[in-house]
Amino acid sequence: MMDLKTKPTDFKDVRIAVLGAKRSGVMASILFAKKGGKVLLSDSGTVEIEGNLLSELNRLNVEVELGGHTSKVTNSELAILSPGIPNSAPIIQLLVKSEIPIVSEIEAASWFIQNSTIIGVTGSNGKTTTTTLLNEMFKDTNFETYCGGNIGIPLSQLMIDAEKSDSPDKVFILELSSFQLERIVHFHPNISIMLNITPDHMDRYEHNLMHYFAAKLHIAMNQNRNDFYIYNDDDRLLCENLPKNCQTIPAGIFSKSEKPVYADKNSIYLKNGEKLIDRSELFLLGEHNLYNILASLNAALICGISQAHLRDVLKNFKGIEHRLEFITTINGVDFYNDSKATNVDSVNYALKSFARPVIVILGGKDKDSDFSLLIPNLKKYAKEAILVGKAAAKIRTALEGVLPLTDAGYNMEKAVRIAKTKANPGDVVVLSPACASFDMYNNYEHRGKAFKEIVRRFEEEPKSA
């Protein structure tokens, strides 16, 4: 078995099993095969691997087994785990029993990062926006940027690209899920960002928030006194569980602590009181995005990014697809796509972003969420909710009597048509589901694109007389 007491460097002829044949598993297989490993890529399902990637796997003599794990997996010296595979999976239990070390793809790929800055971003909400904003902040500077992780580009793929460059100033900006952080050993970000903690993925963490939080906190486990941990100090749970091995930097909005970057209702300021930018110049809506901006600014300023450059980025950054994304206006009603809001807290932030009546489309595949936590903000900001998907009945039970509810079954087009019919000029219709998408769609991106296509079809319909 491979000894992970120190970070491994030699993989020649090491038997490596990569579990999960989606993109992170494929790219990890290619990376470790290039390093001389004898790689087995194994998936319990029937996954379609892109033709060019399959050709590369074949060229590198990576063995691929799909449709079930064989005993070859337990003949490995190291297992690299794709994030979607839970610890309860039988193959993981078998590897543990066989005492074969298991690491995440993020951990394994990070072994090859040398003399570079790593910024890790985690939390329950805001990860993708913050990661994307940071990437924009580091573009057109002295840094060569590599952005990925949970945002869609595996770190293994970034490493394959980065090793082609001899730039001395590389920065890896990584969105990190709790799944990716569960099995890290040596992964060491120079700057870690913890945006917030609210219940999410409770179905994976035995309905225990602290188990979920413990996985998130792994982001700081290998940091030292030269490293930085940026956290939202309006979040009590984060404040009560600060790491003691690194420098901690608060990045809240309402707390009274002294901060390197802070905001009031009008502007964002630096520690010395110098105004950086007026909030009226920002494209990003909502309190939740202000948290994302403050965290990003702290990280960028630590790395020496100029204030002028940061100001320009903030003035032009319009957010990410599927996160409070404005689509169009139909008959005076604004339509927004917030498909990435897959948990209750994201929806609460979305509702608070609008000063006009909201019709919200809720539902999908439940992640063991408590939908009653939506009630205060639904009462304050929403005029109606349209329910879709598998979780509709549970949501109705939680919200009955709070506001008008209409069921649209498993039909997004019907949901949009109902919302459009009930909305008045000046209202907002937003898809902000508080659920995963897998009951109706491949992922939240698929759901968001489908929603946008439906809205745009309605936009082309002739206006009623």
Characterise the protein shown here.
There is one protein chain. The protein is α/β, with parallel strands linked by helices and 465 residues long. It has three domains: 15-100, Rossmann fold (3-Layer(aba) Sandwich), CATH 3.40.50; 113-316, Mur-like, catalytic domain (UDP-N-acetylmuramoyl-L-alanine:D-glutamate ligase, 3-Layer(aba) Sandwich); 325-459, Mur ligase, C-terminal domain (Protein-Tyrosine Phosphatase, Chain A, Alpha-Beta Complex). The protein is built from 16 helices and 20 strands. Helix 3 (90-97) links the parallel strand 4 (78-81) and strand 5. The longest helix has 16 residues, at 287-302. The protein is globular. The relative contact order is 0.08.
What keywords describe this structure?
465 residues; alpha/beta; Rossmann fold; Protein-Tyrosine Phosphatase, Chain A; 6-stranded mixed β-sheet; 16 helices; 32% helix
Q: Which CATH class of the largest domain is shown?
A: Alpha Beta
Strand order of the largest sheet: 7-8-6-9-10-11
Distance between the termini: 74 Å
Rg from Cα: 23 Å
How much is the average pLDDT? Answer: 94
Tell me which CATH architecture of the largest domain applies here: 3-Layer(aba) Sandwich
The low-pLDDT segments are none
- The CATH homologous superfamily of the largest domain is termed Mur-like, catalytic domain
Beta fraction: 15-25%
Total beta-strand segments: 20
Total number of distinct structural domains: 3
Structural class: alpha/beta
3D shape = globular
Specify the helix fraction band.
Answer: 25-40%
Q: Largest sheet, described in full?
A: 6 strands, parallel
CATH topology annotation of the largest domain? UDP-N-acetylmuramoyl-L-alanine:D-glutamate ligase
